[in-house]
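Two records follow; treat each independently.
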Amino acid sequence: MKDKTLNLILSEKSKRKTVIVATEINSGKQVIINETINSDINNKILIAIRNNIIHGKSEVVEIEKKKWFINISLPPLRLITVGAVHIAQPLAEVATICGYEVIIIDPRAAFGNNQRFPDIKIINDWPEVALNDLQLDNRTAVVTLTHDPKLDDSALNAALKSDVFYIGSLGSKKTHNARIQRLKIANFTDAEISKIHGPVGLSIGAKSPQEIAISIISEIISNRNNFENNEDN
């Protein structure tokens, strides 16, 4: 692989972009494939691998009697948790085990720090500001856990305007109904508000922080799989 191609790939990955490299098997010729390039081979390969891109599945395709190996590298799945509360600790652990890159946002450094969350990226900033800086995309899930409307609503203001595949908010049905009313006052539509899973997590009778964390990651996984299946159709 040429240095120029490698540098381009690394640059795109750092921006959480999907990277597609097509290698013509007989000649070894390599090209970067993306929607911004308007060439015959680029467009034909994009059409041929539409479903592959959704799942990040690399394989050999034949275009005009030439075989190309298509290597697809998707951005890592990511869980952004707003609130460095006690539930965030087991949630960060189980999400990491499930292959998610975990980021915790909490402006309160006494809660959000690496003593409480070793090896986890911590952002001590206002949630809406932090989320807007993180380039939210359709491989990102956002969960709010603080029970503080100022912090949770700040995060929801950013998440609801983005392409994230999952939004969840901790709290009782009464808390969630109050949240809905605040978001309506903030001019969010019913369709936008319905994207929020609240109370967060699958209904499994979870009680402990560990059980709640499992219910949350289970709901995230379920929604991710449904999202991919819907994209296939």
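The next record belongs to a different protein.
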Amino acid sequence: MTPDTLLLRQIHPGFVQNGRVTSQAFRHTPKDEFQLSVDNGARVTAEAAWRRFTADPACTSAGVQAISRSDCAAQVLPVIEDGSSHPEHCSIDFSAFEKKAIDKKAKLLRAAAATRGWLFTEAAA
């Protein structure tokens, strides 16, 4: 993985307000144990990642946005290529930070993703 590798993030429809993705989309949930799930964009396209994700009836996504590995490095967030649920799966590790720092980092990641815009949307499916 290079610094320019895009990390694809599924955006839950509830995290889109007035057409804008909220920083909640770039924060882990309590069940995630400080790990934010993403896909390695060098190994899968945004469309293929979206189709795989939404094939599970329990999973909903408005589309895919991305941050780069260098965006994570700028926030001192390790990216782990873990292949845990599928080969291209990665985790962004927030475990070294307290809630206030996590919230700030999520806002900065959201801003980086917003600059790139949507890589794939449900409407394009």
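Discussion point: The helical segments are 46-54, 69-74, 99-116. How would you locate this feature using only the token line?
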